[in-house]
Specification:
Blueprint: H1 2-29, H2 32-38, H3 43-50, H4 53-71, H5 79-92, H6 94-106, H7 112-130, H8 140-155, H9 170-182
Helix pairs in contact: 1-2, 1-4, 1-6, 3-4, 5-8, 5-9, 7-8, 8-9
Length: 193
């Protein structure tokens, strides 16, 4: 049993070191040798566990999404609560925010597991819309993108604006923003004045 525990611990250290490296340097800039050193491991172990740098990157992406999925309860009938939980998670895991931002900037594709988890969320949003818990006049993907955008816009506010955020209750502002997005609105698309 100690061998299995050691293998799991080694894999965990490698993933943690790789998350830091990919978040700081992106896929192209991160070096497998540096990741191995930071994990108190070696490159051979990285290739044994993950096959390639690409495999390691995908494993980090899956680990990030799985941990976030486990720690942030998805409440499609209450997207403002989900947004606040996601905000709290992002604020306590800045390396995840940096990693996801790098992935987006680099145009990295979603992993199969990530696509699966988001498909489940979209199905849940559609079900909440059908039940009348969410506005039904917008696509589920639009509600999700706008909800996630409300969170990320505050988490990743430009450096020049951050000093001005002092005194603003960001959690309350996010709740207001997401509530405005998801509440049924008195709005008719294409209405003529």
């Amino acid at each position: 049993m100690p061998m299995a525990r050691d293998a799991a611990e080694t894999r965990r250290r490698i993933l943690a070191s790789a998350l830091t490296a990919f978040a700081e340097d992106g896929f192209a800039g991160a070096r497998v040798a540096a990741i191995a050193d930071a994990a108190s491991s070696n490159q051979r172990m990285i290739y044994a566990y993950f096959d390639s740098k690409e495999g390691l990157f995908e494993a980090v992406a899956n680990d990030v999404i799985e941990r976030m999925h486990a720690e942030v309860p998805f409440t499609p009938e209450d997207l403002p609560a989900y947004a606040l939980a996601l905000f709290d998670y992002a604020m306590s895991h800045p390396e995840v925010v940096r990693f996801q931002a790098r992935r987006t900037l680099e145009g990295q594709p979603a992993t199969a597991r990530e696509l699966e988890l988001y498909a489940e969320k979209l199905e849940a949003v559609a079900a909440a819309q059908a039940a009348g818990a969410l506005r039904g006049d917008d696509e589920p993907v639009a509600l999700m993108v706008r909800t996630l955008g409300a969170v990320s816009s505050w988490v990743q506010a430009p450096a020049g604006l951050r000093p001005s955020l002092t005194g603003i209750d960001l959690r309350e502002r996010i709740r207001e923003d997401v509530t405005a997005i998801v509440e049924p609105a008195v709005r008719v698309r294409g209405a003529v004045d």
